[in-house]
């Protein structure tokens, strides 16, 4: 009897001790990061900073890895109410998650109180002189230098000619192959070819193949935890970045040697322009700046464009009524086209009113860019809550774009919602807003528009796995990368 009593007592003590340790560890992160704030901790947003060191990253990764991305934010909402601001611990830093339009707008637009605050993994991989990591002054300088040659209307009209040729040729090749293709993978090949042509006048060859492979590895590490050990995505991504930097540096060294040898060649691509361009003080971009800018645009003009294009085509395939409406608009554009004009012109892009709604709806539903990051330069009060100096701010785009209070049936793809809906500021921000608006947004929309023009008119998508599951990291995509056949329509069924 006594023996049984002592066993029960020891068991109870151990269990109580484990519970106590569990509760202490569960609150340790919160205590450590908030206790030093003094009175300011009383005005912090509600939240839970998770476990020591790892914070909320396990729940974040589990939510996305297992196909329930909205469960991460909904857990905060369920526990703490729809406040639109929550404290957490993300990517190694105390963080305020912002998921409502008003605080998002204030954080994105206020350069006086917030600066870029991306996690170490993203900062290191994109480069310390990329748009993500530089100061506000340097950011403004780089935007001034690169805006016209990369996203200006004149530059886009020039790129348009190459974009439409490579898209039309690729679609024809896919149809002639008469075999299943990974639709997303093939579109990624197109957008990579386009960006390589713009930057390096390079369309194919061993160098481009290596760069495409290494960039894919780098991209997988952008939203990973910064664990620089073999076997982790961040470690592989760092190695890929070093290889990409070496290739791009070799290209610039070769161009510079060509200039020094007085060999006269026409300078037509972005590398030549970036190597020559000067600011108002006569200062040129250094090699590190040029390389980091190119890697930044690879992400904006390659990954974002490819995923958004694939989803737009897939959504239209799943919704025949929207497909027919979008196609009718493209047929009308062709009917109005002068007889002497061959192929899609740049000015016709402006006539695609309904297709523009299709693209916006795709960007809203899919959220190619899941979130953005800032860091508070000083203590900031927003909507009654304090964001302490030095804390990160994670702007959760998905929470805004899929908010039923803003968009009726938010997960439903419905381009026609934009017929009457005029988004209030801060409620539609697929490319961010403010001074750090994504610099490749216009190029992305141009690529999607040109692709959908030719696709709607002349081709048909037949997915092999219509009910394929979805992966959400590093970008939202079907698990089979949209395995499908592309069939060319008969002349009688197209324009």
Automatic annotation (TrEMBL):
Keywords from the named record: Heme, Iron, Membrane, Metal-binding, Monooxygenase, Oxidoreductase, Transmembrane, Transmembrane helix
GO MF annotation: an example: ent-kaurenoic acid monooxygenase activity
Domain of life: Eukaryota
Topology relative to the membrane: Single-pass membrane protein
Binding residues annotated for heme, in chain numbering: 438
Protein location: Membrane
Associated pathway: Hormone biosynthesis; Plant hormone biosynthesis; gibberellin biosynthesis
Transmembrane segments: 6-25
GO biological process, one term: brassinosteroid homeostasis
One GO cellular component, as annotated: membrane
Cofactor: heme
InterPro entries documented for this protein: Cyt_P450, Cyt_P450_CS, Cyt_P450_E_grp-I, Cyt_P450_sf
Function as written in the Swiss-Prot or TrEMBL entry: Catalyzes three successive oxidations of ent-kaurenoic acid giving gibberellin 12 (GA12), a key step in gibberellins (GAs) biosynthesis. GAs, which are involved many processes, including stem elongation, play a central role in plant development.
Family: Belongs to the cytochrome P450 family.
PANTHER family noted in UniProt: CYTOCHROME P450 26, ENT-KAURENOIC ACID OXIDASE 2-LIKE ISOFORM X1
Stated name of the protein: Ent-kaurenoic acid oxidase
Native organism: Rhamnella rubrinervis
């Amino acid at each position: 009897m006594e023996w049984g009593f002592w066993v029960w007592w020891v068991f109870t003590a151990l269990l109580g001790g484990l519970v106590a340790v569990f509760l202490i560890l569960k609150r340790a992160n919160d205590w450590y990061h908030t206790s030093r704030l003094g009175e300011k901790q009383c005005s912090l947003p509600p939240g839970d900073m998770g476990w020591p060191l790892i914070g909320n990253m396990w729940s974040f990764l589990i939510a996305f890895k297992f196909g329930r991305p909205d469960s991460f934010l909904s857990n905060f909402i369920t526990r703490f109410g729809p406040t639109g601001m929550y404290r957490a611990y993300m990517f190694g830093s105390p963080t305020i998650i912002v998921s409502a339009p008003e605080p998002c707008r204030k954080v994105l637009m206020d350069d006086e109180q917030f600066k870029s605050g991306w996690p170490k993994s993203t900062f290191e991989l994109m480069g310390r002189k990329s748009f993500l990591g530089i100061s506000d002054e340097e950011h403004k300088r780089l935007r001034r230098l690169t805006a016209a040659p990369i996203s200006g209307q004149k530059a886009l009209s020039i790129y348009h000619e190459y974009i439409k040729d490579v898209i039309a040729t690729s679609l024809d090749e896919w149809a002639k192959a008469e075999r299943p293709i990974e639709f997303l993978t093939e579109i990624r090949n197109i957008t990579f070819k386009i960006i390589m042509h713009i930057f390096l006048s390079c369309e194919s060859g061993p160098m481009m193949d290596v760069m495409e492979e290494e960039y894919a590895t780098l991209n997988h590490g952008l939203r990973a935890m910064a664990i620089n050990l073999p076997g982790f995505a961040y470690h592989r991504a760092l190695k890929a970045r070093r290889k990409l930097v070496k290739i791009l540096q070799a290209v610039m060294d070769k161009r510079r040697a060509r200039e020094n040898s007085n060999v006269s060649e026409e300078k037509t691509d972005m590398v030549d322009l970036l190597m020559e361009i000067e600011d108002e003080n006569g200062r040129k971009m250094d090699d590190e700046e040029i390389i980091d800018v190119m890697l930044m645009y690879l992400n904006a003009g390659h990954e974002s464009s490819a995923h958004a294009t694939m989803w737009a085509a897939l959504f239209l395939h799943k919704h025949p009524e929207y497909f027919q409406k979008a196609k009718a608009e493209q047929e009308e554009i062709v009917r109005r086209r002068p007889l002497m004009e061959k192929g899609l012109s740049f000015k016709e892009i402006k006539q695609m009113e309904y297709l523009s709604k299709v693209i916006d709806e795709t960007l809203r539903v899919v959220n190619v860019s899941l979130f953005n990051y800032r860091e508070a330069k000083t203590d900031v009060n927003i909507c009654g809550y304090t964001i302490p100096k030095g804390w990160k701010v994670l702007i959760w785009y998905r929470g805004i774009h899929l908010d039923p209070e803003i968009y009726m049936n938010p997960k439903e793809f419905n381009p026609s919602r934009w017929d009457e809906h005029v988004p209030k500021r801060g409620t539609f921000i697929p490319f961010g807003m403010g001074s750090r608006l994504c610099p490749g947004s216009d190029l992305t929309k141009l690529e999607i528009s040109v692709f959908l023009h030719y696709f709607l008119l002349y081709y048909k998508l037949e997915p092999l796995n219509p009910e394929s599951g979805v992966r959400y990291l590093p970008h939202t995509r079907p698990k089979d990368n949209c395995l499908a056949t592309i069939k060319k329509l008969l002349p009688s069924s197209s324009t």
